[in-house]
Amino acid sequence: EFVETLDQWQLPTYRYLPSRHLPLGPKKKKHPVLLVHGLGSNRYDVDFLDPRLSLAKFLNRQGYDTWVIELRGAGKSHKKGWVANRLAKLRADWDLDDHIFRELPAVVAHIQKKSGREKIHWVGHSLGGTIVYAAIETLGNDICASAVTLGAAMSSMAKPGFIKMLLRLDPLYKKIPFLPTRQLARASVPLGRWLAPLEDN
């Protein structure tokens, strides 16, 4: 199902309903679980195709009503309207605030409506975990049954190193809106192994 945000992004949500015929061990759990993927990935970050390696499918087998979201710019997410969607693909014009204030409130409201439950268990990986911290703060503790983050940053401060140098180039990206950052990122992947030992972040 797609959840529409106020700025007309269509966010795919994937739901795994617990089976009515669960084995004797696990029972249907009270609150649904929302899984949020990390930066530069999509739903497969938390819901791998192989069911033995899927966190979403594992939680579902334990009796949880499990939901996976794809944030804007990831997977099958898209902007409403052909022209708006093409422009969004050419230029990523969103930031962390959009994930926190536009996406998660819309997804949470959708899950609450569909599940009939107010509280949600949150699981976020990397950027997804950082968004979870902020979402719980902005939406209030009343919607949080529990929260787990996996490798999520607690601070946005970058240590000296290669990443900090790249962050200094941010004003350049804003002056050249159609810079092919996605293609440049893909082209730089082979450098990752060489640069990783030099980077302390």
Overall mean pLDDT stands at 84
Number of strands: 7
Biggest β-sheet description? 7 strands, mixed
Spell the H/E element sequence. Answer: EEEHEEHHEHEHHHH
Can you walk me through this structure?
The protein is of the alpha/beta class and 201 residues long. The protein contains eight helices and seven strands, in the order βββαββααβαβαααα. Helices cover 36% and strands 17% of the residues. Strands 1, 2, 3, 4, 5, 6 and 7 form a seven-stranded mixed β-sheet that branches. α3 packs across α4. The model has no long low-confidence stretch (mean pLDDT 84).
Summarize the structure.
By secondary structure, the protein is α/β, with parallel strands linked by helices. The chain contains eight helices and seven strands. The longest helix is centred in the middle third of the chain and has 20 residues.
Top keywords for this entry?
201 residues; alpha/beta; seven-stranded mixed sheet; 36% helix; globular
Explain the layout of strands and helices.
Blueprint: E1 2-4, E2 9-16, E3 33-36, H1 55-61, E4 66-69, E5 78-79, H2 82-90, H3 96-115, E6 120-125, H4 127-139, E7 144-150, H5 162-167, H6 170-175, H7 181-188, H8 192-195
Parallel strand pairs: 3-4, 3-6, 6-7
Antiparallel strand pairs: 1-2, 2-4, 2-5
Helix pairs in contact: 3-4
